[in-house]
Design a protein that fits this description.
It is a single chain. This protein is an all-alpha fold. Helix content is 82%, strand content 0%. The chain is built from four helices and no strands. Helix 1 runs antiparallel to helix 2. The longest helix is centred in the N-terminal third of the chain and has 23 residues.
Length: 98
């Protein structure tokens, strides 16, 4: 597994989470923001419009965002899970995997 694979797994989970937020809670903003950040991450990973380092900046922003929402809501789902997945993606992108 390499940094690109880690990022693509995260992108799929991020987008799926936005879809679930829309379908279960009717949150259009959840869907729009997950699609927007997924697009930014894809463009950064493919080095289109953004440098690859932008993916790390976007992940760091999402980590702060989900962590703040977790501390405000005190509920693990969905913000705690997304904070944990975002942290894992950031760490795994920067360690040598096999």
């Amino acid at each position: 597994m390499n940094a690109h694979t880690v990022l693509w797994v995260y992108i799929v989970l991020l987008f799926a989470g936005g879809m679930v937020g829309y379908l279960k809670a009717g949150s259009k903003m959840s869907f729009i923001m997950s699609a927007s950040f997924a697009a930014i991450l894809i463009l950064a990973d493919r080095n289109i419009l953004f440098k690859p380092e932008v993916a790390d900046i976007a992940l760091a922003f999402l980590l702060v965002f989900f962590s703040l929402r977790l501390t405000k809501s005190k509920k693990f789902m969905p913000n705690g899970l997304m904070a944990a997945l975002t942290l894992a993606a950031l760490v795994l992108r920067h360690i040598h995997l096999g």
